[in-house]
Structure formats: structure tokens, C-alpha cells
Amino acid sequence: MSDTIEILSSVVADQIAAGEVIERPASIVKELVENSLDAGAQKIEVEVQAGGTEGIVVRDDGAGMTRTDAERACLRHATSKLREIFELDGIASFGFRGEALASISAVSQTTIASRRPADAEGTRVRVVQGEVAEIVPAGLPPGTCIEVTDLFASVPARRKFLRKAATELSHISDWLQRAALAHPEVAFSLKNGAREVFRHPAVRHADERLRQVQGAARAAEMIACVGEEAGVRVRGWVSRAGTSYAQSKAILTFVGGRVVRDRLLTRAILDAYRALLPQGRYPAVVLFIDVAAGMVDVNVHPTKIEVRFADGDAIYSSVLHTLRRTLDDAIQAPAPSRPGKETGASDSDRRVRAALARYAERPSTRAEKVYRVRESAAPDTLAARAPAVGAGRAASAAAADRGASSRTGQEAMPFAEPAAAGSRPRFADLRIIGQALNGYIVCEGADGLVLIDQHAAHERVRFERLRLAATETIASQQLLVPAVVELDEGALVTLEAHGAELVRAGFEVEGFGAGRVMLRALPATLDVSTDAEVLLADLARDLAQAGAAGGDERIRAARDTLLARIACHGAVRVGDPLLPAEMQRLLADLDTIPFAATCPHGRPLMAELPRSEIERRVRR
Ligand code: ADP
Ligand code: MG
User: Does residue 65's CB lie within 6 angstroms of at least one atom of ligand 1?
Assistant: First the structure.
């Protein structure tokens, strides 16, 4: 019997390895540009043909290579960046595996032209399928220019995986823009054929680079954030709670200056924005995370786009808290009209600390520990606002009190705690002037007028309470006469897929199929006269959108979606008249919830009209 194990030729081995590092043209651009950055380049020019599928050139003005180095650069494990394995711990360069050029040259025709500034002439090396085909001296400008053509010519199976030139170009452009964000001091440009895609001259400040990359308008909408906790430094920019995007593409994370995609980071970011954005919408975030070398392992993925953190919790909370604080500061409640109540620095410190304490734990676990009372035990007073049920309102308020007293200790009163703990300006301190335009509560604040959207505000209060209670099944009420609801096929499929969540939210829906369902029970917080048809159609639409989130986030997103919709349907509407006491109550309720500035569907719930603005308008 003949032996069947063979040692792969080094070229075949490199071609296989190339599959890991070199997925597509953008991977080549990434590796070449990182080499240029490692070489200390001030200027990096990328030129591609047909989105990189026909050719890639990366030119830099960095340190360059000697003739010998240029010849060796394409050998596997040829690297100038790592002499000893123990150096791996504190690695500062992008490359260190000595794999990229070997992999690239194994699946293409690669030409390296390089000259060190100190040398009189440079070297040009042509490598075909991993073998040096030609090496000649050449007159060259200082720096390195690497040209890659005939990509995957020897690996037709991989070539088939290449997408349209436009798609590949957008991958290249996306990656290069991110690299540019991390290195404002380096000039970057990208050309596709004769067309210039972008050109960013070197700048001194990171925010100038943000403007170059995102455009002035979008950059102006973002708020700078910075924070540090447990040795994890976080800095960057985040979009305001009122702005959102259809895709998560605008969330860019960097660890130690590397573009990194990490589920933990993404989750911390999305958790910070939870309920501040409409369902299925995403923030724009550019975030640089810096941790001590040794706290992060960048060598877990061949292209180093994934990392492993030694202390994931520290990363999660540092990111979450920094973003929460930034967003909280950006959407402060208005200043109170009560005189003499100064908000000094120490006050704001205390407020920040209170906010941190509130979010020290993940929302769900916090709710589990602190709040075991069902939503039905703490009904919100406005739900029973019709004059005819005035007595019922008193009764439910009493029930709420009972609920409160039956809980133990002060931590069992999450609604009262935030307002008591911090001294952030309180909505309840505003002087109510009255209801206007059938939907706004007009108030006087310290230095101007504050208009509060009654529907958005009430929806927000209801949502936060539902959310705190939602680790348990929400109490439901049986309908005397079940409602038969006609729905289209898509809506039926979506609702059926979320059956378990619907039950937990207090719904009882039966008989999916044949274009209709039977609604037997509603969450107790909803009025029995709720239009079931509209509600279910709305829910299906929201859930279908939230479903796009994918992964672990899905269940939580679906739950928030449901709660937001329930909150919305039970909230006072524009046009509902409110009694003064009801307005006062709503303001007081707003003080009990965090992040009061948007409704769960992401609309702002108030507008301020400062005195200065009023005076400007009347030209005082
Ligand atoms: P790594 O970056 O992991 O060291 P590469 O295969 O990407 O491995 O590169 C191999 C070596 O080639 C590098 O260590 C470096 O010495 C040299 N090199 C590659 N690109 C450049 C460049 N643009 N400027 C200077 N030296 C380079
Ligand atoms: Mg490299």
C-alpha cells in the first residue's frame, strides 16, 4: 500500500493560507496599508482597477526596504517586526505574523518596488505565484510601492467568489475610511481607475479627520465622548438620541487603533442606546478603545479583525457608561424654574455617579434584582384618566402605594430613586402654564419655556415601567368577546414567530393561519377598547423590522419592540385634554425615569424655547 500523506509544497500551503487572510481585494488593501502604516508612512495612496478585482497599487512614503528585505518580504514568516515570541505581548505594529505578503504573492502577481530614503537607488522585485521571478535595481522615490495583479488567477475557485467591482470597491473604501479615522496624521487617498473616490490630506486633530470622512453635516451632529474606567479608555463620537440610521454600518469600533468588529463592543454600544432610538434603527458611533497591552489579544484571527479581551466586563461597562453619560448630558432635563437651586459641579458629579450606579448592571439583571413587582401592581395613573373612572384612579393609586410598601428596602423603589439620588433638574420643578394646541404641556423653566409633547412623554413613562417589569410575564386581561383580526400573510408569519414574546408581553393570540387570528387577551395596561387590528398590524410591522437585528440581540429587541408598542397604544394622545393634576403627575413621572428626552420610538419628547431665543425674535 502506498503512502498517501504528502507534505504540501510551500506554494500550495501559501495558497491555502491565503484563503484565510486574503478573502477579497479589500483584504489585500488592508494588509498593504497596514504595512505602510507600520513603515511610518505620512502619505498612503491606494489605486485600484475595477474595484481591485483587476489590480491594486498601494504607494507609501515610509521607511522602505533594502534589496535583501525586498527579496525576503514575500517569504512565509518573513517579518521584521517580531524577533522573539515573547515580544508578542506588547505588540505595537499592525503586522507581525509575516504572512500577508507571502499569502498575497501566492495568489497573484506581485511587484514590490522599494527604496529606503538613505539609499541611492531602490529595488524592484517581481514575484509570480510565490517565486521571485525577477529582481533588479531601480531608480525610485523613497518609500514602497506594491502592485498586485492577476488576483486569484491560479485559484479559479476563489476568483468566482469575487463580487461586482462596485461591491468590492465599497469594501475597500469602507475599510480605508476607517483606517483614515484612526490615523488623522496620515494622508489617505483612493482612486478607482481614473476616478478619485476620496482624498484626505493629513490633519492635526481627530475631529478634522471625522469631518473629512463623514462630511461636515454629519460630523456636526455627533457628540464627542471620552471616559475611562478600570484601565479602559474610551473616546470618540456618538450620534444624538434623535438621530438614527437604517444600518449598523455606521458603528465603527477600534481597539488600539485597529479596526475591530466585536460583539461585546457592539452590544455595549447598542445597550447604551437601548430605547433611545426607534426600533430597528442604529446610531452612528466612532469609538476608539485603548487598553493596556496584555489586556487584549490581537492574535486570535488571521486578519486581526477580531480580538479577545482579558476583561470583557471592564470593556463592556466602560463603553456603556461613557456613552450613557455622554447621551445623558446631551439630553438633560431643562433647568428648573425654582430659584436658589443651583446646579454646581459637585451636583453634576453626583448626578453622573447616580447615573453610573443605575447602570452598573445590565438592564435586565438590574430589573430582576430590584423590581419584582408586576406592572399591574404599579399602574400608571393616566391610564385611568377618564372622568367616569375617577374613583378607579384613586383605587389604583392606592394599589400602587400598597405595591410600594410591600416591597422591601429603599432599593425596591426604582422609580423614586434616580430623582432622589441625583439633583439633576427636575421636570416636576417646572411651572406648568397649561395645555396648548391640544397636545403640549407648556411650562416655564429657569430661563425660558419648555414644551412637552404629552403623548411622547406618557409613552416614555409607560415604556420604562413596562421594561422594568418585563423580566416577568406582564399581566394580561381576558377579553369578554375575543377579537377576530384579519392580517396579511407576512404579519401572521411574524407574529407566529414571536409567539413566546407575545405571551410574555400579556397577549393571547390564537389560530394563526387562514388570514386571521383570534385575540383572546391583552396586556392589562391597555384599554380593552384598543383597536386590536391596528395594534397587531403595528406589532407585526415593528417586529419584522426589529428582526433584522439578528443574533442575541433579537429577543431583547423584540421585547423592547413589543413594550414600545404597548406603551404607545396605552398613552394619552394628542388631542386628549389633561387636568392640571394629570400634567403635574406626568412631569413627576418623567423625573423617575432615566433618559427622558425621547419617546421609545425615538422622537424627542420636549422642546425648549430659551429666553434668549424669545428675545431675539422680538428683537429686544
Ligand atoms: P508582517 O507585516 O506581519 O511583518 P508582511 O508579510 O505584511 O508581514 O510583511 C513582511 C515584511 O515586509 C514586513 O515585516 C516589513 O519588513 C516588510 N514590508 C512590507 N511592506 C512594507 C512597506 N510598505 N514598507 C516597508 N517595509 C515593508
Ligand atoms: Mg503586514
Answer: yes
Least confident of 314-323, 365-374, 394-403, 604-613: 365-374
100 CA closest ligand 1 atom index: 6
SS3 label, residue 314 = helix
**Mutation probe of ligand 1 site: the residue of 28, 34, 35, 88 with most atoms within 8 A of C-beta:** 35
| Residue 63 Cβ < 6 Å to ligand 1 | yes
DSSP string over 267-303: HHHHHHHTTTS-TT-B--EEEEEEE-TTSEE-TTSTT
pLDDT tens track for 557-588: 777 777 888 877 777 777 778 888 788 888 88
User: Please, which pLDDT band fits residue 10 given cuts at 50, 70 and 90?
Assistant: low
Q: Is the CB of 237 under 6 A from ligand 1?
A: no
Q: Pairing relation of β-strands 258-259 and 251-255?
A: antiparallel
Angle at which helix 553-570 crosses helix 532-546, to 10 degrees, equals 150
DSSP 519: E
Residue 333 DSSP symbol: P
DSSP helix/strand/coil, 401 = helix
Q: Is residue 39 in contact with ligand 1, taking CB distance under 6 Å?
A: yes
CA distance 542 to 570: 16
**DSSP label of 185:** T
Which residue has the least CA distance to atom 21 on ligand 1? 35
**Stretch 476-499: mean pLDDT, rounded?**
81
Please give the distance, rounded to the nearest whole angstrom, from the Cα atom of residue 64 to the centre of ligand 1.
9
pTM over 0.70: no
Instruction: Confirm or reject: Cβ of 60 under 6 Å from ligand 1.
Output: yes
Q: H helices within 121-164, ranges in order?
A: 156-159
The protein residue with its alpha carbon nearest to ligand 1, atom 13, reads 79
pLDDT category of residue 460 using cuts at 50, 70 and 90: confident
